[in-house]
Each structure stands twice: as C-alpha cells, then as structure tokens.
Specification:
Elements: H1 2-27, H2 33-40, H3 46-55, H4 57-60, E1 66-68, H5 76-85, E2 91-96, E3 104-107, H6 108-115, E4 122-127, E5 131-135, E6 145-149
Helix pairs in contact: 1-2, 2-3, 5-6
Length: about 160
C-alpha cells in the first residue's frame, strides 16, 4: 500500500511539473523560461517565479498573447463566463502567489474566486498551452487582468 501511495505522489508530481512547464513554454518570453522553470521547481525559490510577475509581467509574458479584459472585470463569475466563451475547460491548473490554489488542479470558478482581487499574481491555465487567465499584482486601483490566448496551431 505504501508503495502505491508513493507511486501516486510521484505521478502527481510529474503531472504538475509537465503542466507548469507547458504554461511557461507557452506564455513566458523565451529569454526567461529556463530561469522561471528552475524557480518553480525549487521549493525555496518558487515564490521568486511569481514575484517576477508583480511589476515586470510585460517583460516576462509574451505580449502578443495578452488580451486585456476591460473593466469592469473584478467579478470572478464574469471572468469565468469570458473564459468559457473562449472554450475554457471547467477544471484548471493554477500557478499563484495564493497558496490555497498554487500548484493545484481545481474547478475554474473556485480558482477564480481565490485569485480575482487577491492582490498578487496568478496564472490559471484553462486549456493547457492555449488559454489562461492572468492577474497581476495590485499596486493601486484594480490590477491588470488578461486572457492569455495562444493559437492552437502554434503548439
């Protein structure tokens, strides 16, 4: 039984690593990808990867895939509806400063309820490698909120 639990844990860890690598390779600028992956996969440096998205997200993320969600955009249900219109799946994977959702697969609306208005960066992957939600750090006023949308043919 113990071996089975260990194997399940290893498989989850491998799936998590593959999902995070896909998010980074799909939406982060090429010059920073390896550094961000190193930080994400190093427990003591994981927050460093998310800190990079606080003030410099336009240098970190591929701008050509960023579509700003115009205000009013602070309602998680509204953002959920926008993502569903773009083909989002009901389950998602989250990279977040918020430890309640970071590194977890969970229902999209639940992830949005924790991320929207949290004040710190989150990337919620809705279609692996194709569609995600990004919210930056809140400095003053509402934080910038974006769809990250990559055409399927570019994968």
């Amino acid at each position: 039984m113990r071996g089975l639990i260990s194997k399940i844990g290893w498989e989850r860890s491998k799936m998590k690593r593959e999902m995070e690598e896909l998010i980074v390779k799909s939406f982060f600028d090429k010059h920073i990808q390896e550094r961000v992956l190193h930080e994400l996969f190093t427990p003591k440096k994981r927050k460093d990867a998310m800190n990079r998205l606080c003030h410099r997200y336009t240098k970190m993320l591929k701008e050509k895939y960023m579509i700003e969600i115009p205000p009013p955009n602070s309602n998680p249900k509204y953002i959920y509806d926008v993502l569903m219109m773009h083909g989002a799946e009901k389950m998602c994977y989250s990279l977040s400063y918020n430890e309640k959702i970071d590194g977890k697969e969970l229902p999209l609306l639940e992830a949005l309820e924790h991320a929207v208005g949290d004040g710190f960066p989150s990337i919620i992957s809705c279609i692996p490698g194709e569609l995600a939600y990004f919210e930056s750090e809140q400095e003053y006023g509402a934080p910038p909120r974006y769809l990250l949308k990559r055409p399927k043919y570019e994968l």
